[in-house]
Design a protein that fits this description.
The complex is a heterodimer of chains A (140) and B (299). Chain A is built from five helices and five strands; from the N terminus they run αβαββαβαβα. Chain A has 140 residues and is of the alpha/beta class. Chain B has 299 residues and is an all-alpha fold. The chains are: A alpha/beta (140), B mainly alpha (299).
C-alpha cells in the first residue's frame, strides 16, 4: 500500500498514441502550459515506458497498435496505471461501425481510469488525474 | 570511525543528497517561474526518488546484466566520494591529503564513464547512441577542464591540496580577480554545465530527440541511483568551482553559481554533437591555452 502512495506524489506519464486524430494529443500539451500547469502535482511526461507510472492511451487502437500496447504494458515497471484518454480510446467513439476497427483499449490491457470527451477539456483531464490519485490512495 | 562519519553523514552522503535535492527543487521551481508556471511542490525531487526506489526494476533480457546493474551504483558511490573530498576541504581543512585536487578531478570523470557503460550495456539502439554522444562529450570537455584547473595551480604557486588553495586565496585574493583566472572560471563553468548534463550540452540525454539516451532502459532503483548521483554532483561541482576560483564556499556563492546554471539552461537551445565538438576543440581549447600563457606571465 505504501508503495502505491509514493506514486501519487510524482506521476510520470508515458504517452502512447495509437491512431489518434491528434486532437487528444494537443489537449495533453495544454495541461503542461502555464494556465493548467500539472507539474504542480509532480506530473511530467517521460519519453521511455521504463520510467513511467502511468500509460496514457489516445486514439482508436489500430491493428499495429494493439500488440505494441500489450508489449509496452508488460515492459513497464509495476505498479503502473493505464488511462484511456478520449472517446476513441474509451469506447471507440464514432469509429465503432468502421470496418477497420479492432478492440477497445480495456480488452487489451486493464484500464484504471477513463477520461471521456472528444477531445476532453483540460479541466476534465485534471479531474481525471485527481480521480487517479484518489483511487490509488484508496479514497474512492 | 570519523572517516565513516565524513563519508556517510556530514560532507558526504546525507548532507550532499539533502542539499542536492533542495538544489534540484530550486532549479525546477526557478525554471517554472521563468516560464510563468507555478512549478513543483517543495521537495518534489525527494518524492521522485522515493517513488523510484519503491518501484519494480526491469532488467533488459539481451543486455549485459552485471555492467547494467553496477554502473549506476558505482556512479553514485563515486559522486558521493567527490562530494566528501570537496566538502572536507571546506569544513575540515586540517584533514585531507596532498594532491586531493588531482583525485577529485579524476573521479569527476567516473560518473560520465558509468553513463557510457550503462547506456552501452542495455542493448537499446537509442541508449548506445546516447552513450557514444557522451563519449564524444567527455573527450572534448575534459582537456579544457584540466587546463582551467592548471591555471589555478599556476596562480597559487603550485598548490595541489584543496584546503591549501582556499587558504592561499583568503590570504591574497581569489583567482577570479585576475584576467587568466576569469577566463579559466568561464571555461570551467562551461565544462561544469557539460559534466552536469545541463541544457546547452545535454546532448547525451536529449529528452526530445533520443528520449533520455543512456537512461532509456533504466527503471526503478537503478534509475534512482542515477538521479541521486546527479543530485550529489549538483552539490559537488559548484562547490569545487567555488573553492578553486572564488576562494571558499558559502551560501551566497553557491546560490549565485546555481542561478547562473539555471539561467544558462533556460535561455539556450541544445547544441548538436558536431557543433559541440567544433566549439570545444576550435574555440574553447585555444582560449584555455591562452589562459595558461597569461597565468604564466602573471596576469
Amino acid at each position: 500500500m505504501n508503495r502505491i502512495k509514493n506514486i501519487t506524489k510524482s506521476i510520470w506519464v508515458f504517452h502512447f498514441a495509437s491512431g489518434p486524430c491528434n486532437n487528444c494529443d494537443i489537449e495533453i500539451l495544454d495541461v503542461l502550459t502555464p494556465r493548467f500547469d500539472v507539474e504542480r502535482f509532480g506530473i511530467k511526461l517521460v519519453g521511455s515506458v521504463k520510467h513511467a507510472d502511468a500509460i496514457l492511451v489516445t486514439g482508436m487502437l489500430t491493428r499495429k497498435g494493439a500488440p505494441r500496447l500489450k508489449e509496452l504494458y508488460e515492459m513497464a515497471p509495476k505498479p503502473v496505471v493505464v488511462i484511456a484518454f478520449g472517446s476513441c480510446a474509451s469506447s471507440q467513439g464514432i469509429f465503432k461501425p468502421s470496418y477497420n476497427r479492432t478492440v477497445p483499449v480495456d480488452e487489451v490491457v486493464p484500464v484504471d481510469v477513463y477520461i471521456p470527451g472528444c477531445p476532453p477539456r483540460p479541466e476534465a483531464i485534471i479531474d481525471g488525474i485527481v480521480k487517479v490519485i484518489k483511487k490509488l490512495r484508496g479514497e474512492i | 570511525m570519523r572517516i565513516f562519519f565524513y563519508y556517510f553523514v556530514f560532507p558526504g552522503m546525507l548532507f550532499s543528497i539533502l542539499l542536492g535535492i533542495f538544489a534540484s527543487w530550486f532549479e525546477r521551481k526557478i525554471t517554472a517561474r521563468l516560464q510563468w508556471r507555478v512549478g513543483p511542490p517543495f521537495l518534489q525531487p525527494l518524492y521522485d526518488v522515493l517513488k523510484l526506489f519503491s518501484k519494480e526494476t526491469v532488467i533488459p533480457e539481451r543486455g549485459s546484466e552485471v555492467v547494467f546493474i553496477m554502473s549506476p551504483i558505482i556512479s553514485f558511490v563515486v559522486s558521493v566520494f567527490v562530494a566528501t573530498l570537496v566538502g572536507i576541504a571546506q569544513f575540515y581543512p586540517e584533514i585531507g591529503f596532498q594532491g586531493d585536487l588531482i583525485v577529485v578531478v579524476y573521479f569527476l570523470t567516473i560518473p560520465s564513464l558509468c553513463i557510457i557503460l550503462g547506456g552501452a550495456s542495455s542493448s537499446n539502439p537509442l541508449a548506445s547512441l546516447g552513450a557514444s554522444r557522451e563519449m564524444k562529450l567527455v573527450l572534448s570537455y575534459e582537456i579544457i577542464f584540466w587546463c582551467s584547473v592548471a591555471v589555478v595551480w599556476i596562480k597559487t604557486n603550485g598548490l595541489l591540496k584543496l584546503s591549501n588553495i582556499i587558504h592561499f586565496q583568503t590570504q591574497t585574493s581569489p583567482v577570479i580577480y585576475s584576467i587568466s583566472g576569469f577566463i579559466a572560471f568561464v571555461l570551467a563553468f562551461i565544462t561544469a554545465l557539460a559534466k552536469l548534463g545541463r541544457v546547452p550540452f545535454d546532448i547525451a540525454e536529449a529528452e526530445t530527440e533520443i528520449t533520455g539516451g543512456p537512461y532509456i532502459d533504466y527503471s526503478g532503483a537503478l534509475l534512482g541511483f542515477f538521479k541521486l548521483s546527479q543530485y550529489v554532483l549538483l552539490v559537488a561541482v559548484p562547490f569545487l568551482l567555488c573553492e578553486l576560483f572564488l576562494g571558499g564556499v558559502n551560501v551566497l556563492k553557491y546560490i549565485i553559481i546555481l542561478i547562473l546554471i539555471i539561467l544558462v539552461e533556460n535561455t539556450n537551445p541544445r547544441l548538436k554533437i558536431t557543433q559541440f565538438l567544433w566549439f570545444a576543440w576550435i574555440v574553447l581549447f585555444p582560449i584555455s591555452l591562452i589562459a595558461i600563457i597569461l597565468a604564466i606571465k602573471g596576469l
